[in-house]
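Researcher: Hi, I'm a grad student and pretty new to this. My advisor asked me to get structures for two proteins we've been looking at. I'm not sure of the right format, so I'll just paste the first sequence and hope you can take it from there.
Model: That works fine. Here's the first sequence with its structure tokens right after it:
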Amino acid sequence: MKLNFTKMQGTGNDYIYVDCFRETVKDPEKLAVRLSRRHFGVGSDGLILIGPSESADCKMEMYNADGSRGKMCGNGIRCVGKYVYERGIAQKPILRVETLSGVKTLSLSVSGGKVAAVEVDMGEPLLDPKKIPAKVPKSPAVDIPFSAGGEKYRVTLLSMGNPHCVTFAEDPGRIPLEKIGPGFEHHPAFPEGINTEFVKVINRGEIRMRVWERGSGETLACGTGACAAAVAAALCGKTGREVLVHLRGGDLKIRWEKGSGHVFLKGPAEFVFDGTVEI
């Protein structure tokens, strides 16, 4: 049986997308593992299924490269918005997308029938450790001491639809992330695993970060991670509430509104190629 798919990327965070309005995927966990392998498959950070929703314009189901289910992906959902608009599923400047983290609202910047950028209302950050979830003694867990892999850090914990641990560093580019990342991801304090951001503050409106994503390892970008890093930087008094986040795959604009408390993520989304695979 042949399956049609589309490869897309948002600031280098790449996923394989399947239009489940037309296609059927019976075992997405296994398919995600098979197709995500970069040397033996299509190559991606995971698999995203776009299908019908009873509460929104479409539903997004996300699976990490290891087959585990993801609740939310800021870069992935921007690509969903571009896909849904340009492929004629729902051609609206404001889209609603159902995720495991609730229905998210997308505002599309459209020019000449093409989506140039997408802003996502990511909702409010969750700071209660029980809701992240994280087993730590302090609530909220802002700038708390933490040990992982035999090293000591100061971290801020929060959820942007999935769990994040943010720590500040002088030079994230020199951190051996492949050695340090798993120590955070599988730490007993995080019963559902954790995404970890290593952040350098450049100035009050600009930060740089690298990310270790649970289930995928280091990725070129992470939308929810960029949001988490921006919120953590603001909470720790290091930046204002609007920042430009530099990631290895490109830049994202993050805005944490004072009134609503919602975090807004804006960035590009691009098609890479369409393909067909035997399943």
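Researcher: Oh nice, that was easy. Here's the second one.
Model: And its structure:
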Amino acid sequence: MGAAIKKNKLNKLSEGSVSSPKGFQAGGTHCGIRKAKPDLGWLYSETPADTFAVYTTNAFQAAPLKVMQESLAVEQKLQALIVNSGNANACTGERGMKDAYQMREQVAEQMNLEKHYVGVASTGVIGEFLPMDKVTQGIRSLDFNNKSEISFETAILTTDTREKKIAYEIEVDGQKVIIGGAAKGSGMINPKMATMLGFITTDAVIDPRALDTQLKQLTNETFNMITVDGDTSTNDTVVVMANGQANNQSLDEYHPDWPIFTEALSEVFQFLAKEIARDGEGATKLIEVQVKGTDTIKDAEQMAKAIIGSSLVKTAIHGADANWGRIITAIGYSGASFDPNQIEISIGDETVVENGLPADFNEETLQAYLEKDEVTIFVKVGTSDKKAIGWGCDLSYDYVKINALYRT
């Protein structure tokens, strides 16, 4: 699973996943919601885990989100999650709620758990009812005490082209602590949040309030700083679970190992967010935008989001066209406060704007850089230490094709 752990060092596990922390199991199956692809994933903790979640800001919240919120309102703990892909169970009214409750109850019965220890999540087509006969059969076939042949990370995918998973190992109080994560997301991705599901697990003992604070802060810094197409879904959820099986002293901001824990947690969040942006529908390039020198962090975030969300910027990057005018235009309409005469823009190592005016740059060198699969845009607007980073992807012909045929 990786090299031996080093004191106060992050150790990325070579085959790390959401089930890497002690006491977690996960798997998936094909139950028939989709024609052939895996479509039902499960995540299980041997003991109830402190659990917190954040949800989409879309006014149309899908039924599973409401059921998840009801479960967490009882004890703020979960022991199991059931996640289906291929059908969002969104905009499905009373029947959709009944189906989500039924999924929760079936998993609770299968695992001999209190129903409020089960969370439900769904992703896929909006406005269609779940084929509950198939879902029920799928749940009844699951073995929650053993990892299945099909991974959890595979079963939750929709138009994604690959799994998104990660795990880090650190040392806390001389004990091995692992943080794992999995996510899905490819289209309808826009803050806040995206057509995405994120699941983070850890065996650390951590103060619940500190865990909740970290979830919200890191979600704002990562998942809320990605965009693919400017659309916000009905089902977006990020869940963090801590089951305490590492037996360390409870972590909070006063614990001497708090910095290494939060660094590892941040790495998991950022990796998953970037993988979602990188795997945007039809994408060929990951775009990172770094903004600094603004009066406030909010201004920096607004600028970064405006740039990565601009269709004109995205198409220019796809065509390896150094059209920096599109970047400066996005900055101008971002709503952020800045002095146009102080703007500096660089694409990779090439500075294209200085003090708000065109700078001399090597067109051939920059074009060669833009043809790479990762492109970084740097924006500096002042001398303050306020900054933000956003991630997105290019906009290709395939994006239109994928979404024109999404239901077929």
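Researcher: Is there anything I should tell my advisor about the second?
Model: You could mention this: The chain has a mean pLDDT of 90.
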